[in-house]
Amino acid sequence: MIMGDVLNVLHEGRIENDAEFENGQWRYRVATHKKTIVISFGDHDKIRLITCWRSK
After folding, report:
1. What pTM, to 2 d.p., does this model score?
2. 44 vs 33, residue with greater confidence
3. Going along the chain, which residue ranges are E strands?
C-alpha cells in the first residue's frame, strides 16, 4: 500500500468501531470496502499510521 492509498482511506473510509486504547494512545480503525488502516492522533495536527492492510 502506498501513501495515496492511505489518504484515500482517510477521505473515503469510515471508522468501523469505537476507538481502542492501546499502548497509551487511542487507535481508530478506518476502512473502505478494499482497505483498512489503523491510525492514532499525535500532536495537535498530526496523524500516526499504525498499520494497514488490504481486505479480501
Report:
1. 0.86
2. 33
3. 14-15, 20-22, 25-31, 35-41, 47-54
